[in-house]
Design goal:
The protein has about 200 residues and is mainly alpha-helical. The protein has a single domain, classed as Up-down Bundle (Four Helix Bundle (Hemerythrin (Met), subunit A)), CATH 1.20.120. Helices cover about 70% and strands about 0% of the residues. It is built from 9 helices and no strands. α8 packs across α9. It is globular. The model has no long low-confidence stretch (mean pLDDT about 90).
């Protein structure tokens, strides 16, 4: 029965990971959806984002369950160093990623959860690079894996890097439709995931 729980947990983890990606990509596409269904696309995208958040929450639970029911696949169950070292490394990664998330949420305002047609382009940290929340959230999975002292979860956490990249690309595609030339100018001026050097 224990082996069944281990595999069920991994299957749910993988499915939830990709359902999170699917619904989040839909949630950042209000301008594209508006062409098909009108302005109801914006509240619909809020629903998609809440659903995506639900699946993301499930994946966090899967991480914790894995700690108690790891897969018997030959990987070490824990890192070769002290658990305290894992926690300290996790904290060192968590602090800047949390900072980016909090500042990004603050500067994006309600748009973080609820896309609004009338919302203007963001300022603040978004004048440094275009996706601070994605950077913070995408990296945050590594501290969770480190706090659980799990090499498998640390390796699995790399899957979030392309996932958040795909989400950013999907969002930008919609923002070009939504804002047009002002967004193209902003995109040319401000870096994608890292600050862009000013053009002389």
């Amino acid at each position: 029965m224990v082996v069944v729980i281990e595999w069920i947990n991994i299957i749910v983890l993988v499915i939830s990971t990709f359902l999170f990606l699917y619904f989040y990509v839909k949630s950042v596409s209000p301008a594209q959806l508006e062409k098909k269904m009108g302005e109801i696309a914006y509240p619909k995208c809020k629903t998609y984002r809440l659903v995506a958040g639900g699946f993301e929450g499930i994946t966090v639970i899967n991480y914790v369950v894995y700690f108690f029911y790891p897969l018997p696949i030959g990987l070490p169950l824990v890192f070769p160093w002290s658990w305290l070292v894992s926690i300290l490394i996790g904290i060192l990664i968590l602090i800047p990623s949390l900072y980016l998330m909090v500042i990004g949420i603050k500067d994006a305002g309600r748009e973080t959860l609820e896309p609004k047609k009338e919302h203007t382009l963001y300022g603040g940290i978004y004048e440094t690079f275009r996706h601070p929340q994605a950077i913070g959230e995408g990296v945050m999975w590594f501290p969770i894996a480190l706090f659980l002292n799990s090499p498998f979860l640390a390796l699995y956490s790399f899957i979030w890097i392309p996932i958040f990249y795909i989400m950013c690309v999907a969002e930008e595609r919609d923002l070009v439709i939504r804002y047009g030339d002002p967004y193209l100018e902003y995109r040319d001026r401000v870096g994608f995931l890292i600050p862009k050097r000013s053009k002389k």
